[in-house]
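User: Predict the structure for this protein chain, please.
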Amino acid sequence: MPNAVQAPVLERTLHTVNACANQVSAGSYASYGLKGSVKDLRSMAYSELKARGLGAQATQHVIKRVVDAYTTLRANLRAGNLGLETSKRRRKAESKPIAFRPDAAHTFDDRCLSWNHDAQTVSIWTLDGRMKNLRFVCSPGALKQLAEYRRGESDLIHRDGMWFLIATLDLPEPEVYEPKGWIGVDRGINNLATTSDGDNYSGRRLDRYRRWQARKKAELQAKKTRSAKQLLKKRARRESRRAAHVNHAISKTVVAVAQRTERGIALEQLQGIRERVTVRRDQRARQSSCPFHQLGSFLEYKARRAGVPYLEVDPAYTSQRCPRCGHTERGNRPSRDHFFCRRCGLAGPADHVAGVNVRERARSAWVFVNMPQPDPV
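Assistant: Here is the predicted structure, written as structure tokens:
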């Protein structure tokens, strides 16, 4: 929470270090392509950065940021995340140096940034010298964790007119208890999550909100102005926050129920679902925007933090298998929302049946996960 005097100094500092990062990135790309090392860039740019007013630690962090950015780019290229070698996206990424936004996050270690938790202030390096008594705010719980568990470096970022210090906490994980049962969670588009207990978390409101945002985005894209592009980015961030809020609420409720009843949480492994599942053309955007992975990651980290057992099981035929008699057939699911077993006649909501199947697979999988290692022969 910088005051009117501190804010311009922080802004100038952040803009300068990011401009320096762009300068180092351009020099690294011209001399070493995508493979510049810390040693190479230090010998090339250290004196120039010091001449621009950066301190020794700030200079080292700028160089390290550039090297880390190119390391990440190379890893994405090797993994194929930017497409094939002939794809336009990959050629664009390889054809120019990495650029840093003026307000991009910059790294501060304990030599450049010190915390006073009692007064809730920090002392931070700037281009105008050490800035002391810079106030910060957070919740009482976060302040206690910050004082006990903060580790490593922190990042300063300026976003939407607000200043943030992003600190890393190394929280201890509680011991996972032996579950008395399992809650199977089936993820989907219409129903974001359906549990084996029959609890259903509908995605209708989020889907309606996304359709409304899509119409507004189309109107802005038709204008093709600079302000329209800025509004598009703002709307994209707002839509992402809305989806994250919904997933946080769902995962918090499911973990609380599991912890109260001393059960574990089981999910389907949905890696590569967008490549495996084909939908109509008018449904592609809807499928791509559904945050399957985010909900799973929220459930996983909240379960670990609460000591709740967490498993991911094989998703094959969970929506076509009868949990009572085991009969598996595509005809068991005559429609998207309904399940009817052709052998024993069990009927019910398809997502609920899938959640029950996930629960049953977790029961058998947990036995194998915790099976003692056999003695060596």
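The chain has a mean pLDDT of 88.
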